[in-house]
Amino acid sequence: MGRHERRHRRAAFGLAFVITSLIHLARLTRAGYVFARAGVFGIVDPIALPPAARFALRLGRLIEAPQTDKSIGRISAAVRHLGPSYAKLGQFLATRPDVVGMRLARELESLQDRMPPFSQKEAEAAVVAAFERPLAQSYASFGPAVAAASIAQVHRAEIETGGVRRVVAVKVLRPNVAHSFKVDLDALMFAARHMEALSADARRLRLTEIVRTLTRSVAMEMDLRLEAAALSEMAENTRDDPDFHVPAVEWNYTAHDVLTLEWIDGIPLNDRARLEASHVDMPDLGRKIIQGFLRHALRDGFFHADMHPGNLFVDNAGRLVAVDFGIMGRLGVQERRFLAEILYGFITRNYQRVAEVHFEAGYVPPHHSVANFAQAIRAIGEPIHNRTAQEISMAKLLTLLFEVTALFDMQTRPELLLLQKTMVVVEGVARSFDPKLDIWATSEPVVREWIERNMGPIGRIEGAVGGAGELGKIVAGLPAVAARSVALLERFETITRNGLLLAPEAIETIGRVKSWRSRWHTAGIWAIAIALFAAVWMLR
């Protein structure tokens, strides 16, 4: 490739980069303008923001439209107008009335399964394309949409098997929703990269990794076969739970863009009037939400990560029923242990142990003091003990938590993002049914049960058995590792013996390898012996 061609390619690449950047800036500016006009910036507390963000907030409020008693409806309309990604954000904020205010939270609830549906014709065409056969060959009846969200909508339908008709729920993806999400997420990634380049706080929070995590989550949510698999897995995990139910999947009527499952006769949690008319025990419902989530996260390591009220029902048996399993979270055994110990430490006010667990997990860099971090944790925990949710300002608590994470250089943990987000949502939903809910007292039985089961004598025995199995795999693989090491050394000998021309530095390195060959054999034997000894010691 000539110099002129390389220069031309670099110029073309630079031009493409500039054009793409301008497109992202235009989209972000448009979103900011729409939010500013709708009055979104007026609900943001500027005290916790850095100076640059406070300045941007003041500029945004200059173009805010005059507010009246009827103006608050503009915010949800603005979110709908901006597309599915922003609708997801609005759904999250709807669960935080203590942060955004009750009026705004109630309005944003309209984004939870009450989005404008797409046409019946488009839905039927999607079903026909998914199964590659006429609609009547798939469903005995296919009614209009009964719920519409940012990514998909649900239709009531019937299937016929053996001459018997059964009512089912059919979930159909919105047309072109994948492209809409990609455009928004690309713009958010552009913003995250530039914020990290300009702000140390943004780098610590790892904004780009947050957007990547969201992108992966959305990609999985776009394939309804994966949601069906999540439904099936959680149904197996919770089959013995008396307070929780998962709809059954109709696998023969499920494809990439269409999901068919058991129809649920129940009351959605966002229909407060029907819940009150049915005399549902509201405080008990809040307890079921908190304990169900913790049980799934700790016991199963697999939890529903989108538990807003539009995705939760109460059935005729009083069970909590979850739908929309597009966003799921997973926790490994170690993460579950850390989570349980941290929660239990807060519950028992053992802040020293909470601090130690953070260091053991690597959440806090080791150059900090455990005692100082325990002191900071106490500052968070003490003000919320023996107080009802109604007495706790979650906005101030989150601000304090952010200050502590910054003080101790704690970076965002991508593997915990869904957990953290879901815990906030679940707590918000639960407290909406019981403002006096004591989060710690409600969580304690589930957390204590998991700790006793997994960190007590039985858990240690099971851990030892599992460790022995892993040790067996390592020992079984040692001969192959040793054989590959010897083969590698022999290749070095062959190369040097055949007179391959090498640089002087390479020849010197190979000479050292040959001279130390016998020592490597000895070191390898000692390494194997030490590994076996360490494994046996851990299993004592």
Secondary structure layout plus pairing:
Elements: H1 3-38, H2 51-62, H3 73-82, H4 84-93, H5 97-100, H6 102-108, H7 120-131, E1 141-148, E2 152-161, E3 164-173, H8 177-198, H9 200-205, H10 207-221, H11 224-237, E4 244-245, E5 258-262, E6 266-268, H12 272-277, H13 282-300, E7 302-304, E8 312-315, E9 320-322, E10 328-330, H14 333-348, H15 351-360, H16 370-381, H17 394-407, H18 417-433, H19 439-455, H20 457-497, H21 504-515, H22 517-538
Parallel strand pairs: 4-9
Antiparallel strand pairs: 1-2, 2-3, 3-5, 6-8, 7-10, 8-9
Helix pairs in contact: 1-3, 1-8, 3-4, 8-10, 13-18, 13-19, 14-15, 14-19, 15-16, 16-17, 19-20, 20-21, 20-22
Can you give a write-up of this model?
The structure is a single chain. The chain is globular and about 70 Å long. It has 540 residues and is α+β, with helices and mostly antiparallel strands. It has helices at 3-38, 51-62, 73-82, 84-93, 97-100, 102-108, 120-131, 177-198, 200-205, 207-221, 224-237, 272-277, 282-300, 333-348, 351-360, 370-381, 394-407, 417-433, 439-455, 457-497, 504-515, 517-538, and strands at 141-148, 152-161, 164-173, 244-245, 258-262, 266-268, 302-304, 312-315, 320-322, 328-330. The termini are far apart. The relative contact order is 0.07. The model is unreliable at 462-467 and 516-540 (pLDDT under 50). The protein is built from 22 helices and 10 strands. A hairpin with a 3-residue loop joins strand 1 and strand 2 (152-161). The strands form 3 sheets. It has a 4-stranded antiparallel beta sheet. A 4-stranded mixed beta sheet has the order 4-9-8-6. The chain has a two-stranded antiparallel ribbon with strand order 7-10.
